[in-house]
Write a structure and sequence with these properties.
Elements (H helix, E strand, L loop, with lengths): L6 E7 L2 E6 L2 E6 L11 E5 L2 E6 L1 H26 L2
Antiparallel strand pairs: 1-2, 1-4, 2-3, 4-5
Length: about 80
């Protein structure tokens, strides 16, 4: 199973780029999506940008991830209570 987290392109250098999400930065290859620009939200698989996301799709996916993180945090807190 592959989990896709939208990442934002923050730096470009030829076919390489730096993408960031939730404070994590990753060097990626944009060869398969050569139109990628700084500021684009993208999906990355195995170190390659495989899809540029439109703003609405990126927002929906990010909201889902935010909900997941919130639920996991609440569950972790609940497990530590006697």
């Amino acid at each position: 199973m592959c989990l896709a987290i939208p990442m934002k392109i923050i730096k470009l250098d030829g076919t390489k780029a730096v993408a960031e999400a939730y404070g994590v930065q990753k060097q990626v290859d944009i060869t398969m999506a050569p139109d990628t620009q700084i500021g684009d939200k993208v999906i990355i698989h195995a170190g390659f940008v495989i899809e540029r996301l439109d703003p609405e799709a990126a927002r929906e996916i990010e909201e889902t991830w935010d909900d997941y993180i919130r639920i996991m945090d609440e569950d972790k807190i609940a497990q530590t209570k006697p």
